[in-house]
Every structure is written in C-alpha cells, then in structure tokens.
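Consider a protein example.
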Amino acid sequence: MNQKQITYFLSVYETRSMKKTAEHFFVSPQGISRVIKDMENELGTELFLRSRQQEGLLPTHAAEMLLPHFQNILHEYELIGRQDFLSQPGKYFLEVLVTGGAFGFLGKDFLPSFLLSVPWIQLNFSETVDTMAVHALLQKRIELALLTGPVETKRFRSTRLFQLSHVFVLHKDHPLAQRQALSLHDLDRQDIILRGRERSFYEMYQNRLLQEGVNANILLETNIKDAMLEFVERNMAIGILFSDEARQIKNPELRILSFDDPMKKSDVYLVELKDHPLSKAARAFKRFILDWCK
C-alpha cells in the first residue's frame, strides 16, 4: 500500500466516483479503477460497490473500517513531507488528536485564539477515532488527546473539559419526525446509523440497545458525518450525532430531535499518559484549553 493508492481511495470515497477522481488527478478512469482493484486484491476484500438505488459508488463495510486508518496514514505522510516547523527557530510543534464532536463545542475561535495567545507553538489539531488516538498516546507519538469518556485510569490521566449532548437527525417525512424527542425504545425496528465501531460512541449504543432489548437495525457504521447525512437525506435511516455537529446542518428537509434518555450526554476529557511528563508546548496547550472550557 502506498501514498498514491491511499490518496486515490480517499478521493473515490469522498466523490463516490472514479471518473471525478480521475479528472481531479488528471489520470484516466481506468487507471483509478486499476489502483482500487489492486488495493482490493492486496486486502482480499471489495472496497466499493455500484448502487442501483443511488448514483455513484457505495463504500463497503471494509472501506468504512479502513477509512480512519487511511486518513491517519495520509496525515502522517503530509507531516513528514511538511517539516517546515523544523526550520523555524523557537517554534515548537505540537499534535493533538480529537475525537467525537469536540471541534463543534470548542468553536471556530478556539484555534485562532490559541495561536494568537501562544505564537511559539505550531499546532496540528486533528480529528480521528478513539482507538487511533489512544494508540498514538501509548506509542508516545502524541502527548495529549481529547477523548469521550469513560477513560481508562490505569495508564492515563484525564481532566474533564465539557459535556456533549446526543441528538437524532431525521428526514422531515420520517414517521417519527414530528415528535419533540425520541427515547431509546423508539428506535425499535428502525434503521439507524451509528458512529463507526472504533469510537466509544458505537460501543455505548450497542451495549444499551442490547441491554434494553431494542431491536434496531444498524444500517451503517461510519465515522463520516456527511456519509450519515447522505442516508438521512434519502429518508433511509435515523442518524445519531452530537448536538454541536447537528447545529451545523443547514438542510431544511432534516429535523433535529432531542434524546429523552439518561445516556444522552458524553463527557469529553483531556487525556495524557500517567508516566510521561508533558513538554513545554503540551503544558501550554493544557493550560489554555482548561481556561477556555471554564
């Protein structure tokens, strides 16, 4: 697997089209098709299917599972190729990984304010899935991550930052769309879309559905909000999002319903390794985000 293959895969996933990917990279559609076929042969599984119900290609479950890993690998390629921070005297590079809907809660002013307040840090603030962030912490590739709880206490030290609410997103023509709120039992016999199983979000819902005996059909597991909304916009499923993500939805055809359940909130923590002292840059980021979230 190489950088070019991963780049083409991510483009096909985003555009749902080999033709559009080929036009973007100035290559032939046959060339893109050959690259995807080589990846499928190497991985031993299909990555995209042609859908009769909708235009374009449909990512398989394998593609959905591989997506966050490929995004992370490509991100690492970009970091290696962009070592400009090494040539800036007095600049410290800091990477912080974020999961869940933390970006929406922190707001658009968070990053500009941080960079203005701490100009000697070059910050790479990236969204990923829980397992990738935890792995990066354990490998000591990063010092800090924002994770949804619960957080393991044996190896990690965590500080609670804020709380995120869960909401449902439905098409306006869905039979449940006229309600003010939904409970977990309202999902019985409904098609739903959950965050990918590499997020704690997924495990939490899976366990509660089983405990409550709710027979919901999990139509799709995805880490991409737009992929979820694509199904909701076709009135094919109920999506579950964080409220801060839902507030960014502008489509008048969709309805946002609150969640009438004790598990409707998730705590977000700033997480670090217990046995690994923070660098100067990491300590500065920690002070800033704790003040920001007060």
Remarks:
- The chain has eleven helices and twelve strands.
